[in-house]
Amino acid sequence: MKIVNFATRRPVSVIVIVTVILILGFFSFSRTSVDLLPEMNFPMAAVITSYSGAGPEEVESQITKTMEGSLNSLSGITEIQSTSSEGSSVVLIMFDWGTNMDSAMLDIRENISFIESFLPTGAGKPMVVKMDPNMMPIMQIGVSGGENLEQLQDIAEDVIEPRLSRIPEIASVYITGGNVRQVSVEVDPVKLENYKLSLAQVVSVLQAENFNMSGGQYEQGQRKYYVRNLQQFETTADIEDVRILTSTGQALRLADIAVIKDGYEETTQYTRVNGEPAVGIHCMKQTGANTVSASKQVLAELDKIEQELNMGLEINVVMDQAEYIKQSIQNTEKMILEGALLAILVIFLFLRNWRSTFIIFISIPVSIITTFILMYFSNASVNLITMGGLALGVGRIVDDSIVVFENIYRHRQLGETRMLAAQKGASEVGGAVIAATLTIIAVFAPIAYVQGLTAILFRPLAIVICCSIVASLFVSLTIIPLLASRMLTDETMEKLNKLNIGEGRKVTDRFSRWLDGLSDRYSKLLQASLKRRRRVMVIVTLMMVASLALIPLVGAEFMPAMDTGEISINIEMDKGSTISSTEEVSAQVEERLRSIPEMDLIFASIGSSSVMLMGSGSHTDVATMYVKLCPRNERSKDVNEMTDDIRKMMSDIPGAKIEVSVMDSSGGMMSGSSSAITIQVTGDDLQVLKDLSTEIAEVVRNVPGTREVVSSLTDGTPELQIHIDRDRAAAYGLTPMQVSSTINSAMQGTVATQYRVEGEEVDVKVLYASDQVQDIDYLKNLSIYNSMGMSVKLSQIASFTVEQGPISISRLDQVRIANISGSLLNRDLKSVMDDIKTGVDKIQLPAGYEVEYAGQNQQMMDTFGDLALALLLAIILVYAVMAVQYESFFSPFVIMFSVPTAIIGIIIALLLTGRALSVPAFIGMIMLVGVAVSNAIVFVDYLKQQIDKGMDRDEAIVETGRVRLRPILMTAFSTILAMVPLALGMGEGGEYQAPLATVVIGGLLISTLITLVLVPVVYSILDDIGRRRRQKKADRKAVSTELSLD
């Protein structure tokens, strides 16, 4: 081969090229971003619309349905989901994968602009948001200590938030907890009624008395002056002295009818770190930013702030994604090193020579460093998936070098010169290693047809593996022949078996004798198999059938869960519970958590439905906790076991529903759904949906292995519903909006203006004194004034009922749905869903109601379908590549018999390790198609060469087995042992690669052992069939020739 001859004859050129590649590789690695997973661009957008004071059903009818009907006309939409809750409508739009979301966002905004005029008065402006994993904070910080929460809030807002926001890679900083300063104007409703005044008049007067307005400009001489009218409150006394006129013309001081308090907003949310009051700070990164770099800059800035303030503050990093990323990458790097060492150990056992082993070892670092260049130009980041690809490729990287070097070594043993042996040995197997490399590339080509999350995660893996084996092919055909031609001197060959390496000599000698004996026994086995071909085929067939019968015992799941050591605890009190009662229960939970030795940190958010998502909302009857455990190697239990222990520990706390689950820091984006189990019931009537969802939820709870089963249709907070009589209101000159506005002001207050103090804008809120707002009688007697100043009691124009409506109403593709969700414990998703379906099928559904299985189960089935097609295409492409390479249909067909035998090893490996079939395992099956045929290619390629030289077929088969057994076993076991660290799945991030490596190890091991017998047998059978056909054809031709002569 020309490239081999070039490499051996021009060593300086090769050394210079390799040196440049290494320099570029190190430079590329330093410039490549580091993250946990590949960048994800989800084709999802949300339209969020506020409608203050409206209940879920009113929001649904007046906003959500209008939005859905309009948005449904957009092209490329696959699904529309919506949630209508109190005062808010959220419509989630999902597009086809690959959709240009920038263009889609423009289409959504244009569509919304056409329907804004149809929305009810009082509805907020719809906000369009692109769903992005970057919405999740990369870091959460808890600031505690100091004198009080007010001081912490000021420091967080005035110091920490501005400085962190200036970091280029940080997109936004969000603060939770703390107290917000507010001036409250608490009006006495009795005095207000006596003076015939309304809250609206008080608000108007305050607005009129506090302003900063431009008055234009004027010129005097050569100078220009700007005019500004300043009438601003400077102290609370200024607010107290505000004059307000009654209907009789009397001028009252505001202090005559109200009490002005300079204090804080009513607390509806608390934050605690390890039981201490704190302010939470959440940092979101810029899209495409390096998470590790961003985290490093944030930590450096926090250190500076802590030193500069020197106020006894305690700044705790509650959650830092970069920490887990670094641990995962370091763990993967460790597995790469361990795999490389195990592979080299195998090679040494076979070669028994450190110099020869070193020649092959060179292929690993050179190939890996070269891969970083290709990664840089393909915009792939260093992450758990790409580093896993390198770890998986380590064993395969040395395969080409082993085959090339072993053949060079064999030619040197035959007495050929170093240069001739290098050129002839490498060229002789060059076609085989190229074919083997092309088959690996071919198996990953169909990944391009896979869509969704699987494509996002595993295309980078495919790219990295393909890049690494292309680099290894280059090394095997250039550096290996070059080094062999220089290092395999006559002296080295003479000393091959005389190296003094102590105890290792005995081990290698023993192994060499065992290998020689194995070679002899294998030759005899081949001879016996060729005589009993039918028996061999029957045995292999029975083995495959038996393994296929075990498939039902193998579970299935979408993605293996990662043990990040993070647990989420959700506390749900009785609807309408106060923040103080929720805090009491939270304190009990925190106290019990602190008794767990593996506990590292507890971050509690009382009054919030999420500790992860920005703007998750405030609810006085809920609390969430983020629990961080110590590193995995410091605890005896995994995160699932710890979660179950905590769940049992909290089961006897009264007055609250406590859910404990493994933390998914991506909010469900990684797994496709935040819950493993998702069942959707569709229909129109909310009560029927509620009854059905309750029944189905009970079925799910009774299935072993299910946890935290909940229905989305639960009773909401008890609400006093006020029904305004439009005709009676109109008779008094009032509109429903005026009435609603007055009620809202009376119950919640109205921000009239801002009071500037110490450089800070403080809200001035007008509201009724809290001791006067007590019950329904107060509301019934609430005075409402029309434009003429005439008052009317609310009871005169409205009726009152106490209801308990739904918390929210969910819809899917414009149809109401109830969601039943749950998590798993110690069971795989497929077996659990099979049991659930069996139970749900027994439920009699009313006409017009349907049950659908969505979430991870649906995504698993869809993805497995895509991957099955990719597997089929991979097999076809591998055959096509070999057919082109050999210009033959026969040889590739023989080689492909090594693929189905891998199924036996796959099933056995999954059963022995207790692992379920998942997306990574399926990717391993696809990869195995290319890996499994490599050994068969080496065997058949050499066999054809011997037959072409005139050797008898059966003798050629036995000779090929004798010559090729060593390189086949060497490549197979180096690949297998290199993947063992990955298959163990130990350490942070190991869960993703473990199923893939397990499948490849099991499939390659069994496939290699069976292929060594099956491929020769199949070759001989098909060759006999071909010979008989050729003989019959020749006989027919001879007969026709004789007849023509007659």
TrEMBL record:
Gene3D superfamilies: Multidrug efflux transporter AcrB pore domain, Multidrug efflux transporter AcrB pore domain like, Multidrug efflux transporter AcrB TolC docking domain, DN and DC subdomains, Multidrug efflux transporter AcrB transmembrane domain. The keyword Ribosomal protein does not apply. GO terms for molecular function: xenobiotic transmembrane transporter activity. The chain crosses the membrane at residues 12-30, 335-351, 358-378, 384-409, 429-449, 461-484, 536-555, 867-886, 893-913, 919-943, 963-984, 996-1022. The keyword Nucleotide-binding does not apply. InterPro entries: AcrB_DN_DC_subdom (IPR027463), Acrflvin-R (IPR001036). Coiled coil: none annotated. GO terms for cellular component: plasma membrane. Keywords: Membrane, Transmembrane, Transmembrane helix. This is Rnd multidrug efflux transporter.
